[in-house]
Write a structure and sequence with these properties.
With 85 residues, the protein is mainly alpha-helical. It is built from 3 helices and 2 strands, in the order ααββα. A two-stranded antiparallel ribbon has the order 1-2. The longest helix has 32 residues.
């Protein structure tokens, strides 16, 4: 299972049934299924790759560094904006 493989890399994968959790579908603008989204704190990325175990795991591992950089950049921007005020 992809979630188990990614957990050893400190990446959590969650499954949500938006047909039952309508409020989540609305909140995150989910209109079709399956929809895969990546969240790093308040930053959201869309996943447009294939929905296979191998593709999901490979994508997440390849992009883990990019996602961390985007998060750190987001934090620095917030910090810089706070300093400017």
């Amino acid at each position: 299972m992809a979630a188990q493989d990614l957990l050893s890399h400190k990446i959590q994968l969650a499954k949500v049934d938006c047909t039952k959790e309508h409020w989540l579908a609305q909140r995150f603008n989910v209109h079709g299924y399956p929809t895969l989204k990546i969240f790093t704190n308040k930053i959201e990325f869309a996943y447009h790759g294939r929905r296979t175990h191998t593709e999901i795991v490979d994508y997440m591992l390849r992009h883990q560094e990019y996602i961390e950089l985007a998060y750190n950049s987001h934090i620095m921007t917030k910090f810089e904006n706070t300093k400017a005020e």
